[in-house]
Amino acid sequence: MPIESIPALHTGLSLAAVLFCLGLAGLLVRRNIIFMLMCVEICTNAAALAFVVAGAHWSDADGQVMFVFVITLAAAEVAIALALVLQFYRRRYTVDIDQLNALRG
Amino acid sequence: MTLLAIIAVLFLGGILAWLSEHWKDGASRWVALLSLLLAIALLGRYADHTGIATATGSAPLWWDSLQLNWIPRFGITFFLALDGLGFLLLALTLAMGLFGLIATWRDVGFRRGFFYFNYLWTLAGVAGVFTAMDLFLFFFFWEVMLVPMLLLIAVWGYEQRIPAAIKFFIFTQASSLLMLIAIVALVYLHYSASGQLTFNYRELLAARLPPATSYWLMLGFFVAFAVKLPALPLHTWLPDAHTQAPTAGSILLAAILLKTGAYGLLRFTLPLFPESSLAFAPVAMSIGAASVVYGAVMSFAQRDMKRLVAYSSVSHMGFVLLGLYALNAIAIQGAVMQMIAHGLSTAALFALVGALQHRLHTRDMGELGGLWGNLPRLSAIALFFAVASLGLPGLGNFIAEFLVLAGSFASSRWITAVAATGLVGAALYALLMMQRVFFGGERSPHQNSGPPADLAPRESAALLSLAVLLVFLGLRPQGVFDTAGPAVADALQHIDATVAGTPDRYGAPPGDTGAVADAADSRWPPSNPERGISP
Amino acid sequence: MTVVAWIPMLPLLGFLVLIATPLFSDRPLPPKLVAAIGVGSVGLAAILTAFLAATQFAGNPAAELNLSLWQWFSVDGLQLDFGFHLDWLTLVMLSVVTGVGFLIHLYSTGYMRDDAGYQRYFAYLNLFVCAMLLLVLADNLVLLYLGWEGVGLCSYLLIGFWYRDPANGAAARKAFVVTRIGDTAMVIGLFLLFTEFATLDIGELISALSTVQANDPRVTLAALLLLGGAVGKSAQLPLQTWLPDAMAGPTPVSALIHAATMVTAGVYLIARMHPLFALSDMAMSAVAIVGALTLLLAGCSALVQSDIKRVLAYSTISQIGYMFLALGVGAWSGAIFHLMTHAFFKALLFLAAGSVILGLHHEQDIFRMGGLRRKIPFTFFCFLIGCACLAALPFTSGFYSKDRILLSAWDFYHGFNGIWLAGVLGALVTGFYSFRLLFLVFFGREGEASSHCRDANNTAMVLPLGMLAVLALLGGLLAPPLQSVFGAAGAGHPPLWVEAIAVAAPLAGIAMAWWACLYNDPARGEQSALGRFWYSGWGFDRLYDTLLVKPFTTLARLNRNDVIDRLYSGTAAASRQLHGLVSVSQNGQVRWYIATLAVGTVLFLALLVVL
Fold this sequence. Notes:
The structure holds 3 protein chains of 3 kinds.
Chain A: H1 5-29, H2 33-57, H3 62-92
Helix pairs in contact in A: 1-2, 2-3
Chain B: H1 2-23, H2 27-44, E1 64-71, E2 76-82, H3 84-103, H4 112-131, H5 135-156, H6 161-194, H7 201-204, H8 211-228, H9 237-244, H10 247-272, H11 274-301, H12 305-326, H13 329-360, H14 376-389, H15 396-411, H16 413-438, H17 457-475, H18 478-501
Antiparallel strand pairs in B: 1-2
Helix pairs in contact in B: 1-2, 1-4, 2-3, 2-4, 3-4, 3-10, 3-13, 3-18, 4-5, 4-10, 5-6, 6-8, 6-9, 8-10, 8-11, 9-10, 9-12, 10-12, 10-13, 10-18, 11-12, 11-16, 11-18, 12-13, 12-15, 12-16, 13-14, 13-15, 13-17, 13-18, 14-16, 14-17, 15-16, 15-17
Chain C: H1 2-24, H2 31-57, E1 65-75, E2 78-86, H3 88-111, H4 118-137, H5 141-159, H6 166-197, H7 202-209, H8 217-233, H9 242-245, H10 251-260, H11 265-272, H12 274-278, H13 281-304, H14 308-328, H15 332-359, H16 377-390, H17 397-412, H18 418-442, H19 459-474, H20 483-486, H21 496-519, H22 529-535, H23 540-558, H24 563-583, H25 590-610
Antiparallel strand pairs in C: 1-2
Helix pairs in contact in C: 1-2, 1-4, 2-3, 2-4, 3-4, 3-10, 3-15, 3-19, 4-5, 5-6, 5-10, 6-8, 8-11, 8-13, 10-15, 13-14, 13-18, 13-22, 14-15, 14-17, 14-18, 15-16, 15-17, 15-19, 16-18, 16-19, 17-18, 17-21, 18-21
């Protein structure tokens, strides 16, 4: 394990953590579904960044493989989520997540 | 193979009935009728076995059996077998299935195909329960019969059908979970003791368990069967389920499904756990007597005619429990008779209530009255079955109750005396029903739509055939006793062996709690030369 | 042999024909055919009985017949045949049931002529005769019980025959339920007998009893339990309350079931099982005391009744009390003799009362009658004969039988005793109430209802009345030879004054009746407190109502919704509450879920790190 790459790992993971927290904060604060979707994207990308950093650190290709997975996943997720949002908007004329509470117990 | 054929005919008939409704309206009930008749014809092949009073041991107990490998890894086989008891109950199942079908021929208004699918599958499940001799297979059929019954109640029932169906399901499901645990534990304990992994009933009879464990396992079985029976205090699903079920469903429930509980006690609980059953007998008899009395009192208090009949079932099945746990041949034969006679009389009463509901759209006895004037046929037949229900001598119910009480009197005098007061209770509710519905001034709720039509020939014929059967059972019951005899003796044999082997284990054997007869003399007939009485 | 089987079979066939035709066709049978079937079947049974008596029994006091039709059931030691046993006791009962039964059937064809339920009536009546015949013919106690319950059912059906009036239905149910209480005791007695003696065949039981020593507690208990059944069926203390209400049925029914045959079944049962009772002093005293008390209580109640049929009903209770008294002092044949004569004269009285009631257009209040003897002389003479027999005036049939009972009571206790005294007092009371009834109805001033009285008797009614009148007068000569069944009774010789008192008591009663009803004006007016108490049947109805009926119905109604179900609905409610608590967190807010998810994850990770 090369000693000089440790700061890189730290910096990379810290960046991923900061990104994730930003995304999470956005999720909690925003009520617009579109913005929330974007925040979810930030979270997934934070996780993807963590994979890449870790992969680079241990010189393992798995990190990059996972990154490709995450990207694919995010694309699929966005496609489905946007479709749902569109449907929701057509029915309820709103994109406020707090209106979307039909499943309350 | 005939056994398998009977069950298969019912299963396939059910599927065919469902499909046939798509091809032609009303075809499903003809399919159901034909498959039932076919099943009855198949069962008829065993008719020449009936009435053979063979000594146990000399003749093979099974009239017919079929054993196929199913899951060999766990010792599970597809093992069907028929003996006298099974034959009687199978005959009752098919006959009552046919009766329910004919009596409610025009009652099903919607989704007929699915209705008859469920109807036949319930019957198939019950037929499986009465013939399965592998505990796993038995449990399989036990579950199979529940689900279609649940659907019958939940889809075609009356106003409160969903809660009633849920209650029915939870009670039976929770109790059969206990049975499943008991089955698995029994098999496992047998395996660890003998090294043989099997679910076969015959082989498990040989299982020797430590008394405490055996007692708990026995309770697991007992609770599952007692819920079905139903016995106090596990009976409360029954009035709701019976009342809310469609007429055909009530007939199946009362005439057949309740009997699976009694059958299970006699076939499994008693022989598998003789020692624990012996120890538990006084409790079970007390529960039986309490059910008899409580059911009668509750029946007396009802306003809904169907609930009245439902609670009367609790009372009648209490006699079965009392008789089974009296642990002597007279009482158990009486209990078997009661299963049959109660099946016939209660099915008829439910059919009559259904006929009334169909005509007058109410079951509330406060709104009924004086129907004899307009419906003399229906009323006369109802009178017949009401007095059958109160145990009038000359009818099958009397023979049953008399034998149960006569047999259990030898086991426990006071419990029997308490149960006998149920005879008065039966008179109270049966006659009260007659009075409120058929006698008194006319107050039919739908007078403006003209007088209701009396029984159609189809209904009369179905009901009268049951009446004739009941009279036959009351006057010539011997055929039933001879047919069931070997099976009863076989079940008792395990108890007897226990009594003989461990005379002092539980104090006095169940034969006597009274002061008069002495403890060593519990076997029948009680003969003791010192008392100066020769039997 | 098979003649015997046809005797109960014929009424059964009659019943089946009468009940089956309306089930299959909408048109009722023509009344003439109904009458022919109903009366003919019982008539044929009577002829067969007479034939049997003439060929097999005449001049042969020890004659016996046994006939097993088929094996009823046989389960592990409990083995019973559907079998008949005939001896002189059976024959007496058979003759009474078929003979009196036939006459009452015949009378019914006239009495019920205009009733809509004509066919139903005869169907029930035929079923009753069949069940009663099975009861007396049975060679085992279970078959006897079959007949026993069968007659109870028919009694129920016929009391409630006019079903539109709920009061009739209530009376019918009361009759059935009260007797069923007795029957339950009886059936427990059967179980006890079976447990102890391993048989329920009457002959085998009696031979088994020969080896039992006297006053064995099992025997006493069994006898007392059977007595319970007898007390219920025969309307004796403390289960007598159903009989007065049973008068709601048609009057011929009261004559047949509630006077001549069914209510005497208890007497028959005890007589049939007399070796059992004779073994236990306690049971014998119980029978005697029940009889003595009942005859006095019911006699006093009969004194103050205002309904013609209720007077007769209380009188029936009282007379059956005499029979029980006789049984209790071992005068078995005396009891059966009184049973027979009572069947004649009480049937006569009821039928005559029926004619009165019909003539007065269904008026039953004796205070609205009076002076009827000139308007309906034939009925009057029949009633007079009946009352004379009931009061046991010398040389009537009732005199012979009652005299025998009183003498036996004196003998049994070797001299003066309470039972005998009760019997004599009862004779006095009987004379009083029977002639009070006669005087109030047929003598004195004409009542409000008397003016429009018509003679309702038609041929079908005159014939049975006449025949019963002859039987009631001359029945005393027909003492049946029952020694073979009961053994020879030692004839005692009580002092002359004892016999004189027995003869004088009813005469004194009649004098009192004359004084009260003809010499003084019989105002219905205000009754004394005692009179009201007696009128209500010594308050038994109210007692049972408050003690048993009310608590039972209240309890049942309170618990209508099944307290046990509360247990389960309680469980359901509790889990629903719990569910309510937890489901608060499930509020449908996605951001709330995210927040909890995040906090949860952080906590979880923190936990991992800390541990």
